Amino acid sequence: MNKVCPSCQSDDIIIGEISSPEGLLFTPEGENASFPMPSEFIRAYVCRNCGEVVDVIHEGVEEAQQEEKSGGFEYPIQVSDFEFDGSSGFSGSFTMWGEDVCDVDVDFSEDSDDPEADICKYIAVVNEKLNWLGDARDYIARSLIAGGIIGIAEQWCATYPQAQDEEQVCYVVDDGSKVFLPITEEDFINSIHLDNVTIDLSEGAVKAGIQVFLRCRPDYFACHAIVADIDAEGVVTNADLAG
Prior knowledge:
Layout: E1 13-15, E2 17-20, E3 25-27, E4 35-36, E5 41-47, E6 53-59, H1 61-66, E7 79-84, E8 89-96, E9 100-108, H2 115-134, H3 137-146, H4 149-157, E10 170-172, E11 178-180, H5 185-191, E12 192-201, E13 209-216, E14 225-230, E15 236-242
Parallel strand pairs: 9-12
Antiparallel strand pairs: 1-5, 2-3, 3-4, 5-6, 7-8, 8-9, 10-11, 12-13, 13-14, 14-15
């Protein structure tokens, strides 16, 4: 193929597997990930060394079937059922932080000349962000704690009925859980779970940020979610509650 990865200079370039010509799916081999494509048959050259998408292949179905396929992607996070909406993004769901099945939305520029190609172009970026997020639970929680989230949670919990059968101050929140005050840092870290993730690629990969919706179990905030914005450098820049 005589292609070289611009990021790591490796010439170990592979072609993504076409798993279903009838459904026009682009599927990295060996992983449960598929991207429905509304028009063209899409494949991409990808660096096996670093995962960078080197080039996008636009071919007709018959021509694509005749070309030899080789290699495959290896993603450490299982991303399933991503669905391209035909305009400015795609969405799906994945498992994160051990047990949470979380919705993920990927947004890119509405002015994109070739949104189908953008899906392939941004696969490596999305993979990088999801891998970072997979290891960031403690960091995100401690950033929220530094911003005073535990004090806010205690104020909310104190509005609930107080349990009468406990020696320690304890309130029964909406989901029936008992919350003992004060809430410890460990209690809070263990309580947060991912509900939704949005990866914003509207300004390109370099400035790609993440927005996460977090739910707490016990439900400290009466069905409200913690919404946290994370910039391209991985810094939590803003957090608020949303009903």
